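Hi R.,

Here are the chain sequences for the assembly we discussed:
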Amino acid sequence: MGCGRVGGQLAGLLDAEGHTVTVLDTDAYSFRRLPSDFGGTALVGNGLDQEALKRAGIEEADAFVVVTQGDNRNVMAAQIAKHIFNVPRVICRIYDPLRQELYQTLGLEAISPTTVFARLLKEKLEG
Amino acid sequence: MYIIVIGGGRVGYYLTKALLDEGHEVLLVEKNATLCEKITDELGSVCFRGDGCEAATLVEIGTGRADMFIAVTGDDEDNLVACQVAKYKFNVPRTIARNRNPGNEPLFKKLGVDVVVSSTNIILEHIEEEVPTHPLTHLFTLGDRGLEIVEIKIPPESTTVGKAVKELPLPEESKLVLVIPTERKPRLATASTILQAGDRVIALTPPESEEQLRTALRGS
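And here is the predicted structure of the full complex:
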């Protein structure tokens, strides 16, 4: 869910590896970021809407990744996938490190690009 | 009581005003600086500018000692996250979230929001009440406890008019509580209560028996 730079690229990589991929975004224009040979499905819809998630096939999904621009939107969609649809693997992006920490302790697999990238930069500078 | 309100829109504004009038200590958190200033002009210094989902903001406003935390922004996801942060990071005893999409209500409850207020549902319920032909009105739902209080009108042409309560094929889990005749005083429903045309019956029922209850009372 979320076809930004990260979402679009991830979808392309997974599709190239032979997975069945569906991309969900509220803006059809965002699908331009998908590679031209993308073989998956691109769907316009709001990932906070359970109907839209069903249309995207969440009930059969093995994994659900949320990478929209909104932290709260990501958190809510991830929790819907995990607690309502029982998707086996759910990963979400949370920019805010504090919120990421909280949701990680609440059992959500959450990555904060802020923390990861800051650490990476520091290592580069020191290395 | 110390109450924190997140979201200075119309709901947040009037809620804060009402809570202040009741003598509570209230702090309203609003992101938008202009809106914040306007609220401060009108209600005094009760508005804090900040993001109510951000832990740093919540530390600053003393969320740890709050008795109640109410999130009423226009976005369901913001309300959910604000309440979760308040609940799980600051142990606020009571969290309340406004909900625009009624479909999200079960999710919110499951995820630790104590009270979910769905504005859409409230409006729907009021409309249901005002439509006289509506066969069954939801008066009150006991959250996830699986029980609701409903009102059912006995139509004048119904086959149940003149029948006693004990003669009706009521679902076992449902209980008739009160019969409100069109003109006389309301009375408690007993097995021998006779139904009259136009009576309004108040009943307790689990949602899954609602349909059977309605059919039993309204006949054909």
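Residues 48 and 77 of chain A are 5 Å apart (CA to CA). DSSP finds five helices and five strands in chain A.

Let me know if anything looks off.

Best,
T.
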